[in-house]
Write a structure and sequence with these properties.
By secondary structure, this protein is mainly alpha-helical. The protein folds into 3 domains: about 130 residues, Fumarase/aspartase (N-terminal domain) (Fumarase C, Chain B, domain 1, Orthogonal Bundle), CATH 1.10.275; about 220 residues, Fumarase/aspartase (Central domain) (Fumarase C, Chain A, domain 2), CATH 1.20.200; about 55 residues, Ribonucleotide Reductase Protein R1, domain 1 (Orthogonal Bundle). About 60% of the residues lie in helices and about 5% in strands. The protein contains 18 helices and 8 strands. A two-stranded antiparallel sheet has the order 1-2. Strands 3-4 form a two-stranded antiparallel ribbon. A two-stranded parallel ribbon has the order 5-6. Strand 5, helix 9 and strand 6 form a beta-alpha-beta unit. Helix 6 packs antiparallel against helix 7 and helix 6 packs parallel to helix 13. The longest helix has about 35 residues. The chain is elongated and about 100 Å long.
C-alpha cells in the first residue's frame, strides 16, 4: 500500500493501482452492487479528458509535454487498456464525482510515470488542476453518458435490423403458406405465415426508426458549462473547441448545446431514448409471446411452427424441448421495463442546477441497450433463423376454422353465414363441408376462395 493525502487527510491506496486516494475512498464507501463502470462510458469519459487537454495546450494553459502525456494516457484508455483501474461501484456519489476523480487520477498517474514521476505523487500532472482543467463533474458526466449511449445505439439498431431481417426471411419463404388467422384468440379469417411475419418485421423496423430519431438531441453537449453551466474556469471559446475535438475523436457530430445549464439540469433527452427502447421491448415481448404460442405443443398446442432445439427442456420429462431463447428474451424485456421506470423516476429527480441521479440513470440506460442488443442477436441466430413451419398443420387449421364462414358474407349475407358458423361450432364439422352439403359452393371453388382470401387476392 501507499499513503496519499487529500483535503480529508491520509488514506491507503494499493501500491500497484493507477487510481488514487479519492477513488480508494469511494471503493470503501460504496460496496453496493459489485458492478464497475460500463466500458463505453469509461471510453467516453476518457475522450473528454483527451479533448480538454488538447484545447488547453493550444490555448497555452497546459504545458505541451503534460498535455501530450494526458492525451496519451486518455487514448490508451480509449483503446481498451487500464479498464480494470475503474473500480468505483455504479451506485456512488451523486452526479458521478467518484467516477470523474477515478478517471482524473488514473490519467494523472499514467501521465506522471510517462514523464518520469511516480504513482501517487501527482507531479507534475495533478488530477484536478490539469486533467480536470476547465471541467466539472457537472458537465463531464452527462456528456460521457450521452457519448456512451451514442456509441451503443448503432449496435442496438443493427441487432434490431438483423432480427427483423430474420423474420422477413421466414415471411418470404412462407409467403404462400395459408393458415388460420386468430383474433381474441378465436378463429378468424385465413391469412398466411408470410403476412404474419412481415407484420412483425415491419413493426420492429418502425421501432428502430423511432429509436434512431432520439440520437439528434444527444449531440447537444453541456461540456464547457463547468459548474452549474456557468463556464467557470474555462478558457475563451472552450465549449466550441472541445466539442470539435470530441467530434474528431468519436466521429460523432456533437456540438455545444444552446443552453449548457439545461444539459446538466435535464436528462429528458436520455429519458426519450429509454422510452423508445421501452417501446421496442414491448413489441419484442409481444412477438416473442406470439412465437411461443405458435410453437406450443408438440401435440396439445398450436405447433404451427417449430423452433430449433438448443438444449434439453426438462430435468424430469425426457425429450421435452422448451422455447428457451424466447423465454430468455422475455426476461430481458421485463428487466428493460423496470429500468425504464427507474430512469423516468430519476429524470424527474433532478433538483435545481443538477441531476445527481446520473450514475444510476446512466447505468440503467447502458444495461437496457446492452441487454437488448445481446438478446436480439442471440434469438435471431438460435431461434428465428432456424424456424420450421408445419405447412400441413397450418392448412388443416385454416380449413377447419369457423372463421371461414366470413368468406360467405358476399354470397349469402352476414346472417346466413352466421348460421353456418354456429352449426360448424356446434357440430365440429368444418365450414367447407357444410358449404358443399348445403349447395352453397363446390369444394374446389371454396378452396380457391380460402386461398384468395389468405393471399389477399380479389376472388
Amino acid at each position: 500500500m501507499r499513503m496519499e493525502k487529500d483535503s480529508l487527510g491520509e488514506y491507503a491506496v494499493p501500491d500497484d493501482a493507477w487510481y488514487g486516494i479519492q477513488t480508494a475512498r469511494a471503493v470503501d464507501n460504496f460496496p453496493i452492487s459489485g458492478r464497475r463502470a460500463d466500458s463505453d462510458f469509461i471510453v467516453s469519459h476518457a475522450a473528454i479528458k483527451v479533448a480538454a487537454a488538447r484545447v488547453h495546450e493550444r490555448a497555452g494553459l497546459l504545458d505541451p509535454s503534460w498535455a501530450q502525456a494526458i492525451g496519451a494516457a486518455g487514448m490508451a484508455i480509449m483503446e481498451g487498456r487500464h479498464h480494470d483501474q475503474f473500480v468505483v461501484d455504479r451506485f456512488q456519489a451523486g452526479a458521478g464525482t467518484s467516477h470523474n476523480m477515478n478517471t482524473n487520477e488514473v490519467i494523472a498517474n499514467l501521465a506522471n510515470v510517462a514523464l518520469g514521476g511516480r504513482r501517487g505523487e501527482y507531479r507534475p500532472v495533478h488530477p484536478n488542476d490539469h486533467v480536470n482543467m476547465g471541467q466539472s463533474t457537472n458537465d463531464t458526466i452527462p456528456t460521457a453518458i450521452r457519448l456512451a449511449v451514442l456509441a451503443k445505439l448503432p449496435r442496438l439498431l443493427a441487432a434490431n435490423e438483423a432480427f427483423a431481417r430474420s423474420l422477413r426471411t421466414v415471411a418470404q419463404r412462407e409467403a404462400a403458406t395459408v393458415k388460420s388467422g386468430r383474433t381474441h384468440l378465436q378463429d378468424a379469417v385465413p391469412t398466411t405465415i408470410g403476412r404474419e411475419f412481415n407484420a412483425y418485421a415491419f413493426t420492429l423496423e418502425r421501432c428502430g426508426r423511432r429509436l434512431q430519431d432520439t440520437a439528434i438531441d444527444l449531440y447537444d453537449l453541456g461540456l464547457g458549462g463547468s459548474a452549474v453551466g456557468t463556464g467557470l474556469n474555462t478558457c475563451p471559446h472552450y465549449a466550441k473547441r472541445v466539442a470539435e475535438e470530441l467530434s474528431a475523436l468519436t466521429g460523432l457530430p456533437v456540438r455545444p448545446a444552446a443552453d449548457l445549464s439545461a444539459q446538466m439540469q435535464s436528462m429528458g433527452d436520455l429519458e426519450r431514448v429509454s422510452a423508445a427502447i421501452r417501446g421496442l421491448a414491448l413489441e419484442v415481448l409481444r412477438i416473442a409471446n406470439d412465437l411461443r404460442l405458435l410453437a406450443s405443443g408438440p401435440r396439445t398446442g398450436f405447433a404451427e411452427i417449430e423452433l430449433p432445439a438448443v438444449q434439453p427442456g426438462s430435468s424430469i420429462m425426457p425429450g421435452k424441448v422448451n422455447p428457451v431463447m424466447l423465454e430468455m428474451l422475455n426476461q430481458v424485456c421485463y428487466q428493460i421495463l423496470g429500468q425504464d421506470a427507474a430512469i423516468a423516476a430519476m429524470t424527474q429527480a433532478g433538483q435545481l442546477e443538477l441531476n445527481v441521479m446520473m450514475p444510476a440513470l446512466g447505468s440503467a440506460l447502458f444495461d437496457m441497450m446492452d441487454w437488448l442488443t445481446h438478446a436480439l442477436q442471440a434469438v435471431a441466430a438460435k431461434a428465428i433463423d432456424g424456424i420450421r413451419v408445419d405447412r400441413q398443420r397450418c392448412r388443416a387449421y385454416a380449413e377447419d376454422s369457423v372463421g371461414l364462414a366470413t368468406l360467405l358474407n358476399r354470397s349469402i349475407g352476414y346472417a346466413q353465414a352466421a348460421k353456418v358458423a354456429q352449426e360448424s361450432a356446434a357440430t365440429g364439422r368444418p365450414v367447407s363441408a357444410l358449404v358443399v352439403e348445403q349447395g352453397l359452393m363446390d369444394a374446389a371453388a371454396f378452396a380457391r376462395l380460402v386461398d384468395g382470401a389468405a393471399l389477399g387476392q380479389d376472388t
